[in-house]
Amino acid sequence: MKSIVYSHWDGSQAEFSLDAKEALDALSDLLMEGLDVQQALEWMRRHGFQLGGLDMRVMGLDEMLDGLRAEAESLYDRYDLDHAMDEMRRRLDDILDREQQSLLDRFGFESARMNDFMTRRHAKEAGLADSIERFRDFEFENEAADEEFQELLQELDRLRALERFVGERGRRFQGPETADYETAQQIRARIEALEKFARDLAEGNFESISPEELSELLSEDAVRSLIMIRDLQSTLEQAGYLRSGEEGDQLTPRAIRRIGAQALAEVYGSLRKDRPGGHEIDARGAAIPLPDQTKPYEFGDPLDLDVVQTLLNRIKREPPSGFPMKLSVEDFVLREMDYTTQSTTVLLLDMSWSMSWAGRFPAAKRVALALDQLIRTRYPRDQFFVVGFSTRAREIKIQELPEVSWDMGEPFTNLQEGLMLAERLIARNPSRNPQILVITDGQPTAYFLGKELHVEWPMGFGGVSPHAVAETMKQVRRVTRRGVTINTFMLDDSPELLGFVEHMTQVNRGRAFFTAPSQLGSFMMIDYLNGRRKQRC
Length: 537
Known about the structure:
The chain is α/β, with parallel strands linked by helices. It folds into 4 domains: about 20-75 and about 190-250, no CATH class; about 85-170, no CATH class; about 285-340, no CATH class; about 345-535, von Willebrand factor, type A domain (Rossmann fold, 3-Layer(aba) Sandwich), CATH 3.40.50.410. It is about 50% helix and about 15% strand. It has 19 helices and 16 strands. It has helices at about 20-30, 35-45, 60-80, 85-105, 110-120, 130-135, 145-155, 155-170, 180-205, 210-215, 220-230, 230-240, 255-270, 305-315, 360-380, 415-430, 465-480, 495-510, 520-535, and strands spanning about 50, 55-60, 80, 175-180, 240-245, 250, 285-295, 335-340, 345-350, 385-390, 395, 435-440, 445-450, 450-455, 485-490, 510-515. The strands form 6 sheets. A 6-stranded mixed β-sheet has the order 11-10-9-12-15-16, sandwiched between helices. Helix 1 (about 20-30) packs across helix 13 and helix 13 (about 255-270) crosses helix 15 (about 360-380).
């Protein structure tokens, strides 16, 4: 007969262990919102996170603490402890009554033994536990009373703890149920356990928490969540996604690649039903031989012979009688060639404060990561750079991108300097297909005159910043003369932004899109892939 033994889950079973990939995915969602690694880890611990593979939400510490507090409050609201000590007080009075009668019967009322007893019994009372303590060394005359008193002494520590608990918390218990002594002791033990768990959770002392006891106080979901939160950082480190550096916890290159792949899957997924992509090219450009790949010659092919294989074919067909050998067309074997062209792409990412609104910046950052992943995996010969701009512009390394955030307190938009930096990157990494992709939600409001930085608020409601626009357009013309295409993705449809982008597009002859943050990925991928195909045809 087959038998199955069930046991209480203690939090250590493998089926509930944290999956490192899912933990990284949850972490990356917070990184997209602008948190750094340490902030994201702390957020996950405090507020919990979703695990897609298990279709489970991991409870955060705050939720567990709320559950512990709610459980304690339910006890306060249910019970009344005003009479919790009555039973023990009656037991003591009964013991002392019998002992007093025994002393009276044997020694009389005026005896020294009676006086000692009465002094102890009627001394100024500090509490029930003290009343019991005063008789610890008293020699009882009544044997049955003595036996029962010894039982009270064994209970004294618990009694004293409950007496202290009631003294400190008794007024908080306003419930309809009157608790007897044992019920009150259970309530005390439960509330003290709840408070200890709460302290351990708040202080991060996870190792001191018993999963089994926690499941009794809350739920097994809470225990699973606790184990996953406890193991969160170590799981990411063991999987090679996280490492400690001089500036704290940092993502590894492996983690950045996965975050990029996940971003690519999100923003590129909607394109998969389209015709196959790829860098199609009909014109013959620069070619690179593919090792160990050959093909028979066909009429019209360029005569790029694999000499060794061609000679072997001639020898196999007819052993030569001497040199020079005569070759036939059927002997010819060509080397397979990879006809490629390169593209240099600079993504200009608006990082001004307004990009924090309506999910704009997380969407833009996902696109940047996705483009990097797409280019590194499918077009490894392409060059891809990211430049962030607000009041100032700066290059953002790909390894920095997952943790980068918008520039808090920087409301100005210096697209001019962003274009300047993009131009320098393209000049240092030349290709026949340079392009700049701009993601922005506002018109230019900052610019340089020579080496001096200027900022300029728009003139009136719905107005423009004329000097910033003029200087930015000068840089647009300069970039256009270098043969660089500018494609712009607008995350806002304000008239002033539309007017500026329309002007820029007319000058550069690039393209402009207006899109919501949720659609930015698809628009950007379509533009990049279509742009590549157009440039290479």
